[in-house]
Amino acid sequence: MGLGIVRWALSASLFSPDRTAAAAGLEETLLVMHHWRTNDGLSIGLSDRSVQDVVQRYGTPLYLYDLSKLRQQFLAISRVLGKDYAIHYSLKANNNLTISAELARLGCRADVSSEGELLIVSAAGFPPAGTIVTGPGKTPSLIKAALEHGAGLMTVESMTEARRVNLEAQRLGRCQRVLLRVNPARKPAGHGLAIATGITKFGVDEDQAPNVMEQVRSLRNIRCVGIQIFSESNILSADTLARHHVDTVAIAQRLRDRGFPIEIVDFGGGIGVPYRPAERPFDLERYASTTHELAINHDFQFILELGRYLVAESGTYLTRVLDIKQSYGQTIVIVDGGVNHLFRPRLLHANALLEVIGKREPPSQTVSIHGPLPSPEDCLVDRLALPPLDVGDLLAIRNCGAYGLSHGLLGFVSHPMPAEVVVDGDRHRLARERGSPADALMRQRP
Hints:
CATH class of the largest domain: Mainly Beta
Number of helices: 11
Number of strands: 23
CATH superfamily of the largest domain: Lyase, Ornithine Decarboxylase, Chain A, domain 1
Oligomer: single chain
Largest sheet: 10 strands, mixed
Shape: globular
Number of domains: 2
């Protein structure tokens, strides 16, 4: 049995009951584990001793990804949405090839925003016809690569971009299906991360959409078959996200009523995960009641682009204590990993979901945990109650599978990239090699 991990300052109300999930075509039935800590080790399913073995082999800082948790998330959302919704994995959340390949194996589709992500989805085995290319400012090179890849859908975010896609499609002798990204007039009512409301670089304003769609009709090598609206991210309220969907469908229906051939409604993403002790998990069952009603009452094809919901809770960041000191009465802990690897979760205060490997003592001190970067901004978590710490202790920060490494400040101070390791049951393997100091000179010339 492992030495145990103590998770401080987290409420027991965050626990959700175990349940068994299954999906057709899978060779195994997956037993869903609690995400939160157990008495014997990390939520990823490894005992403390096994975690120490992983760290001894691969070093720190280190990302661990739990494939069983990844499968659990995909199967759970697939079950509640049913066949009326296509789920696309948004690689911007985490571009790890092993994670992408596992989701492709499960039948997930892909959402990409760069040529690099196109290469990853191709290597991972996502079907090209199930790939959607999104994001503003698509270059001719990206558009050409997407067309040659055979991407089933592409969003257009302006008339200029629509003409650019049409031109590249004409050169290749293709007719590309596109979705018009619309910036809705109504502001989101939730408390998630606002993405496209009011003045924004994303899409065309709602009142401009009919005129843009009319112009797109004149282009011979693209066909606008629907709309995409993505207003808010990391929503924890099922009712709030459901209202977004209802509003989006209403916009699509108004455009259809004006004679535009709207077949597809892309809701973007939005399903959140808990990042703070007081936050509760997103209620999938409550959310499903609205999604089913929309599917029954409308004959649109629906798309969800999910990143954070699928991968956030599968990821754990491991870092080791290098130094402990006092500064005007405050205990400062220096660790070997910083915001160069873990910038986005810090902004969301996710790093408070921190565990100390192998210590059962009650919290006895309040500490601030900082990384090794020569910047005051390199603070992973400020004033957290922890048990007594020693140099060499191993810390685990949970819910870092989304917008962790893929959103890091990787070039700052030229520290190497951390290794990435995937865990499946009691097995683990290297998914991405650790960088080296020599990487700082890559592609540079004196």
